[in-house]
Design goal:
The protein contains 2 helices and 5 strands; from the N terminus they run E-E-H-E-E-H-E. It is of the alpha+beta class. It has a single domain, classed as SUI1-like domain (Translation Initiation Factor Eif1, 2-Layer Sandwich).
Amino acid sequence: MGKKNKGGMIYSTNPNYEFESGQEQETLHPSEQTLRLLFEKKGRAGKIAIIVDGFIGSKTDLKALSKELKNACGVGGSEKNGQIIIQGKVRDKISEILVKKGFKVKRVGG
């Protein structure tokens, strides 16, 4: 059985709601992007996580960047809502890698 296209109307009471079409956003060149590195304590044990926010591009490119950062730091993490979440206290290393790739980096918090 094939999937049915359930296109139609979407209603939201959120005035800031933006409809996401099936098209992925084109990835901007790293020199045109400024990524924010947020320092957060997450989970029950208050473990540290670094959140990379502000990436403009396709989900595929986001996953590839996430995988590269996790492998370089030797840690785990995930991608959610256009953000990369990296486990551990590795903000300096992540910043260094992103700058080498050509991104502008801003450190936020902690």
